[in-house]
Each structure stands twice: as C-alpha cells, then as structure tokens.
Design brief:
Elements (H helix, E strand, L loop, with lengths): L1 H21 L9 H12 L11 H21 L2 H4 L2 H26 L6 H8 L4 H10 L8 H23 L5 H24 L3 H10 L6 H20 L3 H15 L6 H26 L2 H4 L3 H25 L6 H11 L4 H12 L5 H32 L1 H7 L2
Helix pairs in contact: 1-2, 1-13, 2-13, 3-7, 3-12, 3-13, 5-6, 5-8, 5-15, 6-8, 6-17, 7-8, 8-9, 9-11, 9-12, 11-12, 15-16, 15-18, 16-18, 17-18
Length: 400
C-alpha cells in the first residue's frame, strides 16, 4: 500500500504542477495533456523509475478514461453539428476506415502487422475526448470551423467504438454483438427519455435544495448514470468507453440549460481536476519504451504510423470538404481529425492480450498517438492563430 500511495502522490504532484508548466510564458502554448504524458514517461519505470503502474493508479486511470469520454459526450451539441458537418463526418470516417483497412491489408501481407482489422480500426480513430479541452481552451469550438471539427471528431471516436464492440470482441460473433449493441442502444435511449421527461417534484426539489450543499444530488445522479452505463457495457462484453460516451450524451442533453450550468462545471471539476490527469499521466508511465527502441526498425514504425494517422483521417478532408471548408482551414481540420490516443491504447491492449499485435507495433502505435496529441492540435491552433492574427476582420467574424 505504501508504494501505491507514493505512486498516487507522485501522480498528484505532476497533475498539480502541469498547469503551472503550461502557464510559463513562451511563444508556443503547449496543451496540458502533453505535459502530463511526458511527465508520466519521465517518472515511469523506463526512465527515472519513480512510479510503477500499481493497481490503485491503474484503476483510477480507468476511471479517468471513462470520465474523458463522459465529458466528451456532454460537450457534444447535436444542434451544432447537424446537417452538413454530420453528413460529411460520417462519410469521411467510412472512407477513412476503408482506406485504413486497405493499408493495413498491405502491411499484413508483407508481415509488418498481424491483424488487418486491429490496425485498420486503430488508424481510423480521432481523439475527440482529448481534443475537446484543447480546442475549447483555444476558443476553436465557437468558430465556423468548430462544427466541422467537432463532427469529424465525434465520427472518428464513435465509429471506432462501434467497430471495436462489433468486430473486436471475442465473447461472441459479430451478429450476436450487433444484437447486444442494439439492446444497449435501446436501454441508453430509454434512460435518455426518462431523464428528459421524468421530473418528479421531489427529485426536482432535492436537486435545487442540494445544489450548493453537501448533498449534491444532481452530481450524484450524473455519476450514477455514468457508472451504470459503464457497468452495463462491461457486462454486455462491449467496450466500456461506449457506456461512458453514451452516459455523457444523456447527461449533456439534460444539463444544456443555463440553470444546470453549475452541475456541468462541477462534473468538469471532478474529471479535469482529478481523474482525467491521472489517465494521461499513467498512459505515460505505462508506455513501453524498450519495445519502441528495441531496434532501428522499431523506432521507424512510430513516424510511419504517425504519417498513416494523418493520411487516413486527413484524406477525407481533401475529398469531401472542399465546398464547405476554406482552403486555409483544411490543413488544421486534417490535423485535428488525425489526433488519436485513447482508442489506440484500447485497440493495442486488445491486440496484445489476444496475441494479434506485435509488441513493437503496439508501442509504436501508442507512441504515434502520443505524438499526434503533442503535435497535431498545437500546429492546427498555431496555423489558425497566425492566419487570424494577419486578418483581424476575419478574427472578429470568427470570434477567435
């Protein structure tokens, strides 16, 4: 227990120090998740060996991953992304998946990878949960490009989650998984309708009375929905992030009003203040540096997968968005769409557990996902900021 508490203390120190590091004046502002991941690698067993992936922080990291998707689901405004952004996002992700599977098929034929399906799903992801706080802090979600970025991210997150649940689960065949997925969707929809329409007077009064007291009934109800749907997906043999994402959508719909804003702020405080930083720090701690640096060939896999992230998720922007997104905004959209990490970690863990992924490929994929989080949003925001700085009139119109 002493070692677990020390690991938790070290993680808490990193979590508290990371915003201070980010706030140091510099020409380029680094997202806080970048600092957390790098710090996790540094204190992990392969560098300073101060923190081990003990059971306590690994469990809290899993809760952090669930909170990451939960808050991402809460942030989604379906009215904002409906119409063209949603349509383009769906077609774009389907094209990305087809392209990723074709590339992965070639790699498997050459013996470079073991599973076309695993690599294909990993390459087609977008880390909208990771992107949301970065883009929100930069003010990008409120610009005209925001709905396209958000929709592409939702498709790149939700589509792979469905693919993982249908195709990568070994508990049953795709047909049975589809039935289970439909059953989960029906239950989630029922919960959403119940949350919207069932407003017993006693419940409403309790929410209002405990909003600023120790009761915090509204927050407890939201956590109950999160835990219930995560437990349900786990029992169904689906990926737990699907439950967290669905719970976030339900709570987000219910708390869209101005009166519910304090509830959203408190949930964000719990997530971003404690659990989510643990997920990113522990991701760094668990990163397998020896597998990545086992050989020159292993090292070269990381930039290859990073380039494939960009090609697979960026290509649809060039093909489908030409009439809707100005040329100068396509590269930033390509970069944000190609940002990947949480689902890449999930896919690689499945691959390693089932013996369908080489350790060096798993390390390179996760490493490429980390670099994409470190680099792609940062470059996209810098490109947008420089262009809008050169044209103040455009900046005023876009609210940047």
């Amino acid at each position: 227990m002493d070692s677990e508490l020390f690991s938790l203390l070290a993680v808490a120190v990193i979590a508290a120090a990371s915003p201070l590091v980010v706030d140091i004046p510099r020409s380029v502002r680094v997202p806080v998740v970048v600092v957390e991941i790098i710090a996790g690698i540094l204190v992990g067993p392969h560098v300073l060996d101060l923190v081990q992936a003990d059971a306590l922080i690994v469990f809290l990291s899993s809760v952090g991953l669930a909170f990451l998707f939960f808050l991402a689901g809460m942030e989604i405004d379906f009215l904002q992304i409906r119409g063209r952004p949603a349509k383009l996002a769906v077609w774009g992700w389907l094209f990305s998946l087809a392209l990723a599977l074709a590339i992965a098929g070639v790699l498997q034929a050459t013996g470079f990878v073991l599973s076309t399906l695993l690599i294909g799903v990993a390459l087609s992801t977008t880390a909208i949960g990771t992107l949301m706080p970065i883009l929100r802090d930069a003010g990008e979600l409120d610009t005209p490009l925001g709905p396209f970025t958000l929709a592409a991210g939702v498709a790149g997150e939700f589509g792979p989650i469905i693919a993982i649940s249908l195709l990568l689960s070994q508990a049953a065949g795709p047909g049975v998984n589809a039935v289970i997925l439909i059953a989960f969707a029906v239950i989630s929809l029922g919960l959403g309708i119940l949350a919207l329409r069932a407003r017993p007077n006693r419940v409403v009064r309790t929410i209002e009375r405990t909003m600023d007291s120790s009761g915090q009934f509204a927050v407890r109800l939201a956590i109950l929905i999160l835990v219930a749907l995560v437990y349900l997906t786990e029992r169904f043999g689906l990926d737990v992030v699907l439950g967290a994402f669905a719970a976030g959508i339900i709570v987000g719909v219910v708390t869209k009003t101005e009166a519910a804003e304090p509830v959203r702020l408190k949930l964000e405080g719990i997530g971003f203040g404690f659990f989510i930083p643990i997920f990113f720090i522990v991701s760094g701690v668990k990163f397998d540096l020896p597998a990545l640096f086992a050989s020159a060939e292993s090292i070269l896999r990381l930039p290859l997968f990073l380039a494939l992230f960009f090609v697979v998720r960026g290509a649809p922007v060039l093909l489908f968005y030409r009439k809707d997104v100005p040329r100068h905004d396509r590269l930033p959209l390509m970069l944000t769409s190609a940002t990947a990490l949480p689902l890449v970690v999930a896919v690689t863990e499945i691959g390693l557990e089932e013996g369908r992924m080489l350790p060096e490929n798993a390390a390179a994929l996760v490493g490429a996902g980390m670099v994409s989080v470190l680099l792609f949003p940062l470059v996209a925001i810098q490109l947008r900021g420089k262009r809008l700085a050169r044209n103040p009139a455009t900046a005023s119109r876009e609210g940047f």
